[in-house]
Amino acid sequence: YIDTPDFLLARERMALRIRKEGRQWVQTLKVSTSNPLDRIEHNEVLGVGRNDVPQWDINLHDSHEAGKYLNKMFTKKQLQTLQFCFKTDIWRRKCIVKNRVGTVEFALDIGTITASRGAELIASNVQELEIELKDGDSVAVLNHAKAFIKRFKAFIDTQSKSARGFLLARGLDFLPPVRAKPISLKSSVGSAQAKSQLLYSCLDQILSNQSILNASPADYSEYLHQLRVGLRRLKVLLKYLSKQGIALNDESLNNFKIVFDALGQYRDGNYVSSVLNPILRSLGGPEIKISSIENLMNPSHISQANPFQLLLVDVMLLEFSSPYPHGVEIEGRIINQSSAPFKKVIFKHLESTFHFLSSQNSRFAELH
């Protein structure tokens, strides 16, 4: 894997790699998109039959959208500092599965990621199953993922090998918790694209933090908090999508409530025991007594469990759900899906909620 000394590519969620595939050396440039499960990728063959690693050529990607994005983000001077940063040694077993909606590649990867830290070589083990769409509808990948979760109790991890190598080379265990980012709907031409952008934003925060939580970090409190923030944002989005005929089934909605409540109980207990009680003790006050965290299920067990993982897949499948074909009625008015900007509907509901909260402000002390 190739990057600048200060990992500029990794910071922009990009990766440049040279890999031996059979007798071929292949150079690959990957660029992340707003969809946390999608990426732009461009491959170029560098040579055949040689054992030593060939020199990379960043210009091979210039005509592809991945290369154009790279050149837009970085100057030629910055790209001149590219160097080998870490490597992977992976044994891969592949299997192609076809069904009526698409062709999917399963790739079982077992091996190591190795990086230099000063004079020391640091290694991290890899054991994962990648599911990649080769042709057809993205629903094929999600359906296969759902089957694996049900049968083998698998769980989703969106951390790539390049991201893990970046952490290893920097001497870090995990990336920082992912917080909500501002969303712009200016480039969205219709409600379908706007819906996707809003879903991607929620999923990015949820998937990133649950992937770290599943690894059972010693200090998980902020990952747990940001995961619940992402779920709360998703809950609000689902409320408004339901007005357009896009909704989770009853089983998924029930799973959502169970998981959210379980994570909330753990978050409350963790915050009280690790933040509030130490402050109260330092001031000579009494401790707050609630259910002991030791009696609760570890949050990683909650996030890894089938109900939550199946919920995540069902949320991803919402991207392919269609609203009512001729429009949707909101407060007595028909909104045409092809002509009315989706954001105006959102602004209207936000404004209505704001006015309601303002009207209740004088009764704040009485509200429960």
Main sheet makeup = 3 strands, antiparallel
Shape: globular
Structural class: alpha+beta
How would you write the strand order of the largest sheet? 2-3-4
Give me the Rg, rounded.
Answer: 24 Å
Total DSSP helices: 11
Distance between the termini: 55 Å
Rounded average pLDDT: 87
- Sketch the topology as an H/E string, one letter per element: EHEEEHHEEEEHHHHHHHEEH
Poorly predicted residue ranges: 324-339
Helix content: 40-55%
| Structure summary, number of beta strands | 10
Q: What is the domain tally?
A: 3
What does this structure look like?
It is a single chain. The chain has 3 domains: 1-84, no CATH class; 86-172, no CATH class; 178-368, no CATH class. α7 runs antiparallel to α8. The protein has helices at 8-11, 65-73, 76-79, 139-152, 161-170, 191-214, 221-242, 250-282, 299-304, 306-317, 342-359; strands at residues 2-3, 14-21, 24-32, 39-48, 83-84, 86-99, 102-117, 120-136, 328-330, 333-335. The strands form 4 sheets. The protein has a 3-stranded antiparallel sheet with strand order 2-3-4. A 3-stranded antiparallel sheet has the order 6-7-8. The model is unreliable at 324-339 (pLDDT under 50). The protein is an alpha+beta fold and 368 residues long.
